[in-house]
Structures are given as structure tokens and as C-alpha cells.
Design brief:
The protein has 79 residues and is an alpha+beta fold. The protein contains 1 helix and 5 strands, in the order βββαββ. Strands 1, 2, 3, 4 and 5 form a 5-stranded antiparallel sheet that branches. Strand 1 and strand 2 form a beta hairpin.
């Protein structure tokens, strides 16, 4: 099974995935990237962060870029 690496760019810091995770196909790897991003955004929401900028960059076993998913959110107090 192919191995994919999920690097996280979080508020300007980069966290590299050195071990990776195996999936039976690329669709599962894309779903995992989406799940990771959702979980991190949920955690930031609980902290009431004013801005969120998170990217999950996925590399394949050959260390080539595979896909990237990014979320940018700005919370504005209106009243």
C-alpha cells in the first residue's frame, strides 16, 4: 500500500510528518487530509482564535507533493 506524509503548516510553523501513513489508494489519503484539517480547525475554534490559517500538504512515498488543503478563517466581533 502507498505511504503518504501529512505535513502541517500552522500559523506560520511547519510540522513535517516523518513517518507517514499507508492507505490503499489516493482517495483515502485525501480524505485523511480533510479530516486532519477539520480536527485542527475545530481545536482552534475552541480556543476562540481571531484568525486561523492551516494547511495540510500531502506528499507521496517518493516525497513528491501530492495535494494540499488549506483553511483560512477570520473571526470578527461585530457587536
Amino acid at each position: 500500500m502507498p505511504r503518504y506524509f501529512f505535513d502541517v503548516l500552522d500559523q506560520g510553523s511547519t510540522h513535517l510528518d516523518h513517518s507517514g501513513t499507508t492507505f490503499s489508494n489516493y482517495v483515502e489519503a485525501r480524505q485523511e487530509a480533510s479530516r486532519l484539517l477539520y480536527d485542527m480547525a475545530h481545536d482552534y475554534g475552541a480556543l476562540a482564535a481571531a484568525e486561523i490559517d492551516i494547511t495540510v500538504a500531502v506528499r507521496c512515498a517518493a516525497q513528491e507533493p501530492f495535494c494540499r488543503i488549506r483553511m483560512q478563517v477570520t473571526f470578527e466581533q461585530l457587536a
